[in-house]
Amino acid sequence: MDTILIAFIFSLIAGLSTGLGSLLAFFIKDFKHKHLSLLMGFSAGVLIQISFMELFFSSVIETGFLNANIAFFLGIATIAAIEFLIPHEYKEEHLTETEKKNKRLMKTGLLVSVGIIIHNFPEGILTLFGTIKDPHLGLVLLIAIALHNIPEGISVSTPIYYATKNRKKALLWSLFSGITEPIGALVGFFVLYPFITPFVLNLALAFVAGIMVFISFDELLPLSFSHGEAHLTIASLFLGMLTMSMVLFLLE
């Protein structure tokens, strides 16, 4: 029972670490387009790198190239369908340009949040089972997940903060994205335990990678480029990729 309790605590800490990334919003004093382009590009770099170098790569190794690719493109198709079904209110004619941009920013933040919610669910299951198997492995998983959840928190909070100018709302959405990690652990333990296999978990990782790559190319990067800061966007994109690569390297 002590090991199971520790496992749930680990999954809770890992999930709530997304809130640390959202704290960045509290240090932004004024709203400059350069800041938005930089942070959106950085967020896209983080999501793209973790999708290909950790989630998709792990899935290919564990499930095979074909299975991983099927799950990956199914993830892309799923989030594309969700994006198509969301009303594009920011395109309404009576809205000012500022209102349109704010609505699109809010939609982007919510889409990123959806992607991270789906991503964190299997991570919660992974942390739980890993800790039950070996508490030391659970601690390593906790550190790894917490470190990459911090920049993911930035990618949720930044567009919501810029859209609403509300730091509290940005923080709450970021925390909400992370809370699905311990929820995943609970559901995994009480409901899915007989059905969860390493194969299924790794397919889920490829599915989530597809979701995050789509969001990066369809929402984050277009928003980052929309303010005419192309060079800053590209530089911040590679900075996000480099940052995520360094995190993954340190956790090898």
Task: Write a structural description.
This protein is mainly alpha-helical and 252 residues long. Helix content is 85%, strand content 0%. The chain has nine helices and no strands. α3 runs antiparallel to α4 (65-85).
Notable traits:
252 residues, mainly alpha, 9 helices, 85% helix
Entry summary:
The chain is mostly helical.
Fold topology:
Elements: H1 2-16, H2 18-22, H3 33-63, H4 65-85, H5 97-133, H6 135-164, H7 167-192, H8 198-225, H9 230-250
Helix pairs in contact: 1-5, 1-6, 1-7, 3-4, 3-6, 3-8, 3-9, 4-8, 5-6, 5-7, 5-8, 6-7
Structural class: mainly alpha
> What does the average pLDDT come to?
78
Amount of helix: over 70%
* Beta-strand content bin: under 5%
Distance between the termini: 29 Å
How would the global form be characterised? globular
Supply Rg: 18 Å
